[in-house]
């Protein structure tokens, strides 16, 4: 039995995977995917888990590139016989009644000095809070905090800017930190010890 089959959306084991996308197909196709071992092969604890719910599959990813990898493999292997739902950003219950924690990413981007302004502009447009702009010779390291919802699509944008790879293809690394929100207003909870690891590529 798949040990991840019984995990629920708010299970503690899934907190570090805020990106969620469901995969649906006929019962026969879902059984075929399960029996092929593809779910275990694609599941990588550092970046994504694929959950077997019996009648559907849920991709839980720590960052956008991991989600793209899993969906691409499933689409290539099974084509139009599988359907992908809209991407969802999962929040988790907060200790305070009526509040849920929404993910915020601490982002680190290393780029060449001549491309720093363009990279910085991209972050500002995404309502990022710039923490540091560290100039190191001909390179600049930018550190910022930004809501995951505003971060989506950044990997594709960075591919158009010559950034220096560091731990991932785009030169951008991130650690996920939940932030509580109520009625659209964000507030920090518990400081930096609330971080959980992830990589944005």
Structure description:
The chain has 201 residues and is α+β, with helices and mostly antiparallel strands. It has two domains: 12-90, Alpha-Beta Plaits; 100-197, Alpha-Beta Plaits (2-Layer Sandwich). Helices cover 26% and strands 33% of the residues. It contains six helices and twelve strands. The protein has helices spanning 27-36, 38-42, 64-78, 113-125, 148-151, 154-159; strands at residues 19-24, 48-52, 57-61, 83-84, 88-89, 92-93, 100-112, 129-136, 139-147, 172-182, 185-186, 196-197. The strands form two sheets. Strands 6, 7, 8, 9, 10, 11 and 12 form a seven-stranded antiparallel sheet that branches. A hairpin with a 2-residue loop joins strand 10 and strand 11. The longest helix has 15 residues, at 64-78. The radius of gyration is 18 Å and the shape is globular. The model is unreliable at 164-176 and 182-201 (pLDDT under 50).
């Amino acid at each position: 039995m798949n040990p991840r089959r019984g995990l629920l959306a708010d299970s503690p084991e899934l907190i570090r995977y805020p990106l969620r996308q469901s995969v649906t197909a006929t019962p026969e196709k879902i059984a075929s995917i399960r029996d092929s071992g593809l779910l275990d092969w694609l599941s990588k604890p550092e970046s994504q888990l694929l959950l077997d719910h019996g009648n559907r599959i849920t991709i839980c990813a720590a960052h956008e590139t991991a989600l793209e990898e899993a969906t691409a493999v499933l689409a290539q292997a099974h084509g139009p016989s599988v359907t992908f739902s809209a991407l969802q950003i999962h929040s988790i219950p907060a200790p305070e009644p009526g509040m849920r924690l929404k993910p915020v990413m601490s982002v680190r981007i290393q780029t060449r000095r001549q491309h720093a302004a363009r990279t910085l502009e991209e972050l500002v447009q995404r309502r990022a809070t710039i923490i540091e702009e560290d100039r190191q010779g001909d390179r600049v390291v930018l550190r910022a905090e930004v809501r995951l919802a505003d971060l989506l699509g950044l990997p594709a944008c960075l591919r158009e800017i010559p950034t220096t790879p560091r731990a991932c293809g785009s030169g951008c690394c991130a650690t996920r930190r939940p932030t509580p929100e109520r009625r659209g207003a964000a507030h920090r909870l518990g400081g930096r010890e609330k971080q959980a690891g992830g990589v944005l590529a």
